Structure formats: C-alpha cells, structure tokens
Amino acid sequence: MLFCADESRADGTHWVLLVGVDDYAHVTDLKYCSDDVVALRSALIELGVPDNQIKLLHDRAAENRFRPFRANILRQLDLVLKLATADDTILIAFSGHGLHLDNRSYLCPAEADPDDTDTLISLDDVYDQLQKSSAGVRVLIVDACRNNPRVPGSREIVGEGADFVRALEVIVRDQTKPEAESILLLTSCAPGEKSYEEPEFGHGVFSHFLLQGLKGKADSDNNGIVSFHELAEYAGHETKTYVADRFNASQRPFLRGDLEIDTLRHGFTLGSNIVDWPRFRGPNGSGLAPRANLVTTWSDNKNLLWKVSLPGKGTSSPIVVGDAVLVTCYTGEKVVDGEYASIKSLERHLVCYERSTGRQRWVAKEESQHPAHSFFVETMFHGYSTNTPCSDGQSIWAFHSFDGVYAYDLDGNRKWHASLSGKTPPRDQTGSAASVTCSHGRVFVQADYERSSLFAFDGLSGKELWRFDTGSPGMTNCSTPIFFTHGEKELLVYLSPKGRLDLVDSSTGMLFASTRAEISGDTPNSPVSSPETIFVVSDGFSAYSLQSEGGQGGVARNWLSFENEMSYTTPIAVGGKLIEVADLGIMSVVDSTTGALKNRSRLGFRGRIFSSPVADSRHLFVVSETDGTVVVDHNSLAVVAHNRFESDDSNFNATPAISGNLLFLRSDKFLYCIGEKP
C-alpha cells in the first residue's frame, strides 16, 4: 500500500497511529472502538504496511504502555511525528468519544473527565503538531461523535455536537501555513450529527464501510488504487444510506483538506495481498488484478500449490472472499442419446474451500425443483452450473436458473431463496449462463431466459425490490451486467439480445438511457468499462459514453469497429487497449480510444475458447477448453508461455479467478491453485 502525493513519494515510509477507546474511567463506555482500530490495523497490514510502522493503542492491549491513556497517546504521537520524513506519510485514526467545551474540541482518552480539560487531548494541539511534521502527507481520521459521555443510552454529544464536527472543519480550513496543504481530515459525520454503532457489524457503521473501502470496494475506477476521494465517497455513501435505512437518521462522513480532491492522487494502492475476487471476472467484471504478479509457467509438477477434486461438473468461475474460495457444480444428470432422460435428479452444489490449503470447509446442496433446459449442442459444453456466484463479504448468492437465487451466510447456511420459475425451458435454447451481481446491499439477476426481466432483491431478506421488463421473452442471454457510475447514479449496464444497450438505475429499476448497439444472437459477451466509457463486443467492438440534461439520460457511441472475430468471451480493457480472444485463439486488439486495429494474431491453441481472459499487472491469461492456458504479455502482445495439466483430460471452460498472487483455475474435474512454489 502507498500513501503518495506524487510518483516521487512512492517509496516513502508509512507511519500509523491507531487509537480506540471503549472503557472510560469517568464517562460512559462504548462498544466497538477497539474493534474498529484492531481491524484497521489488519487491513493496513494486508495492504503492505509493516507491522512495526503501526502504533496501536486500545483497551485490550496486553501491555499498559499500549492502552489508550492520554500520556501513551501523546508519546506515540510524538514518536510518529519525529520519525516521518518528507517522503513519508502519517495516518492517525481515532475511534472513541469527542467533546466540544469552551469553544475547543477534544478527543477523549481512557481517563477523560469532561470537568478537567487536562485529561483531554486538544484537536488544535494535534493539528499544530501535524503542521510541524515534515511528512509529505498527513491524514487524520476521526470517528468520535457517539454516545453522550455523561448520559447512558443517549446519542447526543456533550456541549453542542454541531460545534465539535464544525471545529474539525474550521481547523482544516483556517490553516494559513503552507505546511497545512497536505493535511487531510476524514470524519465520520457532519456537524450536528452523531456516529452510529451496529452490533451486526461489530463496528461503528462508518468504520465498517471504511474497512470495506480499503479492501477494494472503494476502487470505483478499477485501477487498483483507492484514492482518498474514492474512499471518502464510498464510506460516505454507504454510511449515509445504511444509517438512513437502519436508524432513520442522518450520518454523513466527509473529507476535508486544502488539496484539490477532484485530482487527488493520495491514496491506498491495493497490493497483492488484497484477496477478494467477489464475482464473475472480479471487481465489477473487469477481469483485472492490476497489482498482482502471477507466475507465468505451471504444470502438474511446477507451481501447483494445491488441487482438489470437485463433486461435479460446471463452468462457473471460482470467486474468492477473504480466505474462502467458492465454486458451484452440478450432479445427477441422466443422459440418453444426448438428452436428459430425467431432470429430477439434478442437484447443484456450492462448495467452499480454504484459500491457503484447498481443504473443503462446507458444501450447500440444492435439489432442482423446476424443469431445466435440454442437454444438447452448446449445452453439453457448459451444463447446469454456468452462473458464477457473488459475495459482498457478508453473504453469498448463487443463481441456479429456473430454481432461482439462493442466499447463504459465510458458513454455508441458507438465508433465503427466491424462485424464478415462470415457464418451461425451450428445447432449442442453450440455457442459462448470466451471473448474479451485487451492490449496496442489493442483488441483481439478469433473467431474460427465465422471466424476460432484470431483477433486484434485498440482499438480507430476499424481498423483490424491482423488476425491469427486458422485452426479450425466452431469449438466451449469457451476458452478465456491470455497474457504471454517472453523477450520483449507479447504473446497471445490460446488453439485450434484441440489440440494445440499456442503462437501468440500480436503486429504482427505472430505465435511465438506451441505445441501439451491435448486439445479436444469444449475447454471450458481457460489457466492460473504464471510468468514462462502456465497451461492448458482439458483432463488432463499440464504445459508448453517457450524457444527461435535466435528469434525462442519453448515450453516445464514440466509435464502432468490426476488427474482431465472433466469440463467446468477454473482452478485457487494459493499457489503453481492448483485447478479445475468439475461438481457435484468434486475438484481436483495438485502441480503446479510437477503435483502430492494433494487432491480430493467433495464440497457438488447437481447441475452442469459452473462458474469458483475465489479467494481472503484466500478463493476460487465456484458457482454452482442451489445450491449456496461454500467457500473453499485454504490453508487447507476445506469447510468453503455454501451460497444460497433462493429468486432466476434462474440459476447462470457466473463467479464472485471481487472488493476491494466486491464480485459480477450474475444470470439470478439479479446482487448481497456482502460485510460486519453492
């Protein structure tokens, strides 16, 4: 992880002071402040900050010198400030009580007494010390407006709550010294508000979403960097929405500082230790792990960390959630002359494996309750577990076509089920393949084949929130929607087999914008995006941008190119290029700004390709059905390796997953974990 003001500071050291106070001597206790900072420490270590550069003070510390008393806090603050140099970053995070007394704001250490300011820590003094530090970047995160220290059960702050948070803003805005220009403040609420705690999270609401943002969910442009602007926007939006829904109250975190935050580059570079790959093709379906450095060669005897037998076939992709790898399979097929003799025995499995060892933790089985599509032609290539599950880190959702959506907790316990049965599957279709997606507590299912609709469900309860009529009755659509941010709106990007690009408001299900697009057939490809552009590949490559006037949306096509081969795969946008790999390993590369052809070549495959490519910081990984995996340098576009597992003669039709510096491949028989092996 890096906190950097510019590229020259990329190698600087990061000094962190984290303070969480729950147990107070003279005022009411809190519940989750220590948990907030302990979890923040873990998140920072995962991002690459060495443990010896993090000073952690909290109530459960084994040694008295690391408990959150005033003298200890000031001593560690002084140490951090002295250690930092011009290339370094200082991050100070405080979770506990805050007070505003006699026109001054204070943080409350463990022995805080509102009647004795000598037991408090003045925010003005903290800022004065930050100004004097030579560190290049200085960050203060405050989650301090919680329970009233004097009145148990109250949610009001001592003094005037508005003044406490307003004082934080004033301290930042009124700095006149040039040293203050690199001081940033991120606070948990706005003037007059209070910060809420959530037992279900085991954290303050703001701290919970701050942690989620640091784990990558705030990376809105999928560039592998969470800037402070992105972090503030994510934590702010999620906290504001959650508190409004859960507590019917207002809590609005904000970022303050003298930097131009629209172009702010200070932030958190997501290092190779970030493990979540939570849906089909990873974060927002991009297929990108820009900070990962994967091995490029492997075999049965080289760089294979573990291999497990799967309980059944499937072409769904693995996903990675924390230290868990999840994949779906199917069993129970009875085939006579190329078609199912009986569908009643069909059963789906969601299997959870330990990321580091491959040990199976649990399996959730669901018997088929509804008819399924016939087993013929293309269906024989992907079967009945093609839809990749997704997770928000708290729940897991699996989509099993007509049998519907199933929600589980992280231990594999079913939480709810929503059936999508609406008709008998047509015999002349290739079946269901679109994957479930989730965002902001909502779960989205593209169900053209099942119900001619896009669905949104509440992630916790399974309640249907809205459905959008796609106008594509019974048509096979294997495309998985992605999300696209436009102003304050989060839009669901949907490709219609009837030749439309639709953008649907994810909150309401209302159509925001629509345009004709070069899309036809069963729409196997999914869209991809950059921060400003949506890319589509089907009959051709095309790129689109959005406009809106007076609340009305519009879509403009930036360019159209027919420099591609028809394929089943979703392209990847990396390094200013849009790359598609079609059957027999034909790779087409166009400029993502103009659509101009940059390269077309054969990758040396003998077999077909149904798996979509994924990429790390240097290479593209392209999996063929029967002829191994080709690794391509995505700068030079040269093939650097061709890898096979000679012991596995089954089909490889699933898109891989990337977690840290690990690559996960699945075939019809096995799940593989590939990484550097001594």
Describe the structure in your own words:
The structure is a single chain. By secondary structure, this protein is mainly beta. It contains 8 helices and 47 strands. The chain has a 6-stranded mixed sheet, sandwiched between helices. Strands 14-47-46-45 form a 4-stranded antiparallel sheet, with no helix packed on it. A 4-stranded antiparallel sheet has the order 15-16-19-20, with no helix packed on it. Helix 1 (33-46) packs parallel to helix 5 (205-217) and helix 5 crosses helix 6 (228-247).
Keywords:
single chain; 678 residues; mainly beta; four-stranded antiparallel sheet; 8 helices; globular; disordered N terminus
Structural class determined from secondary elements: mainly beta
Q: Kindly state the mean pLDDT as a whole number? A: 82
Shape: globular
Q: Any idea what the radius of gyration is?
A: 26 Å
**Helical segment tally?**
8
Largest sheet: 6 strands, mixed
Share of helix among residues? Answer: 10-25%
Main-sheet strand order equals 2-1-3-7-8-12
> Roughly what fraction of the amino acids lie in strands?
25-35%
Distance between the termini: 25 Å
Count the beta strands: 47
- The low-pLDDT segments are 1-11, 151-162, 172-181, 258-266, 270-274
Secondary structure blueprint with pairings:
Layout: E1 14-20, H1 33-46, E2 54-58, H2 70-83, E3 89-95, E4 98-101, E5 104-107, E6 121-122, H3 123-132, E7 137-143, H4 161-173, E8 183-187, E9 197-198, E10 203-204, H5 205-217, E11 225-227, H6 228-247, E12 254-257, E13 267-269, E14 304-309, E15 319-321, E16 324-331, E17 334-336, E18 339-342, E19 347-354, E20 360-367, H7 379-382, E21 390-391, E22 395-399, E23 405-409, E24 414-418, E25 437-439, E26 442-447, H8 448-451, E27 453-458, E28 464-469, E29 482-486, E30 489-496, E31 500-505, E32 511-516, E33 528-529, E34 534-537, E35 541-549, E36 552-561, E37 572-574, E38 577-582, E39 586-591, E40 597-602, E41 614-615, E42 619-623, E43 629-633, E44 639-643, E45 657-659, E46 662-666, E47 670-674
Parallel strand pairs: 1-2, 1-3, 3-7, 7-8
Antiparallel strand pairs: 4-5, 5-6, 8-12, 9-10, 11-13, 14-47, 15-16, 16-19, 17-18, 19-20, 21-22, 22-23, 23-24, 25-26, 26-27, 27-28, 29-30, 30-31, 31-32, 33-34, 34-35, 35-36, 37-38, 38-39, 39-40, 41-42, 42-43, 43-44, 45-46, 46-47
